Amino acid sequence: MAEEKNATSAKRASNTKSTTPAKRASTANIRIGIGGWTYAPWRGTFYPSDLTQSRELEYASRQLTSIEINGTFYGLQKPASYEKWYQETPDDFVFSLKAPRYATNRKVLADAGETIERFFASGVLLLKQKLGPVNWQFAPTKKFDPEDFEAFLKLLPASIEGQKLRHAVEVRNDTFKAPDFIALARKYKVAVVLAGDSDYPQIADLTAPFVYARIMGTTDKQATGYSAKALDAWAERARQLAAGATPDDLETAAEPPAKAAARDVYLYVISGFKERNPAAAMALIGKL
Q: Of the candidates 114, 208, 209, 276, which lies 20 to 30 Å from 29 by C-alpha distance?
């Protein structure tokens, strides 16, 4: 019986894989995903009931175009894990990583150098071309200190061993809603995480060659987490952001860039009613 179930799951994953590249071709610069892939309530809802847990990433990576890895926020992962994640996902799949909290949850950010170095030496680069942006998330209590924050941005490597890196900062204190902060982010080409449908400050300023958005408004009232109208709105915002424009209905802290330029977009359905997040992400992919 177990062998029959695994065979059925494998067939589903194979069938999905064969149709995925065509879907992605039209949205090459917009990636939609979720946070993590291990969550019990997704079993039997997002994941087929007969799918073994060891194949959840394989399955999820063929329904979505990116996943934000959360485990890296809580501790260093083993090189073997990065190798495994690389092997289990399609060639055009991309991960984003939440950077270690030990780098951002500190009084003096300028002292985070050793933690940052250990993180990038832990096997991160084994993701190769599937390594997307690194999200440096700060606590809501962390206030903007221009001098110290710039010292932190200077510690973020632009590349390692020839592999270019992308960095995003997720700031959650109103003191960051300031032109000086936006100027710093643009100087170092670091994206400011766009918080959507949440209680956190919304800073939608374009500051890097890519956009990193985390939307948090899914509910249990909709099968897809969001209403069709709300999904249409986020799909249109993603299109505008990819074209280098800031949607009029998003909040910014400074003047827009002098010249619009196309940007990659990474959009993750996070928090909210988590059980619906995969459905919301897949619905957005369909609309795009």
A: 276
Q: How far is CA 60 from CA 139, 175, 198, 261, in A?
A: 29, 37, 25, 31
Taking the C-alpha atoms of residue 183 and residue 186, their distance in angstroms, rounded to an integer, is: 5
CA distances 188 to 166, 209, 210, 274, Å, are: 10, 11, 13, 33
**Measured between alpha carbons, how far is 213 from 21 in angstroms, rounded to an integer?**
23
- Range 199-203, long-range pairs (CB < 8 A, 24+ positions): 200/140, 200/172, 201/171, 201/172, 201/173, 201/174, 201/176, 201/177, 201/251, 202/250, 202/251, 203/171, 203/176, 203/177, 203/251, 203/252, 203/253
The rounded distance, in Å, linking the Cα atoms of 176 and 153 is 14
| pLDDT, tens digit (0-9, with 9 covering 90-100), for 147-183 | 999 999 999 999 999 999 999 999 999 999 999 999 9
Q: Confirm if 138 and 170 have CB atoms less than 8 A apart.
A: yes
Q: What percent of the chain has pLDDT over 70?
A: 90
| Whether residue 142 has pLDDT greater than 60 | yes
CATH number of 29-287: 3.20.20.410
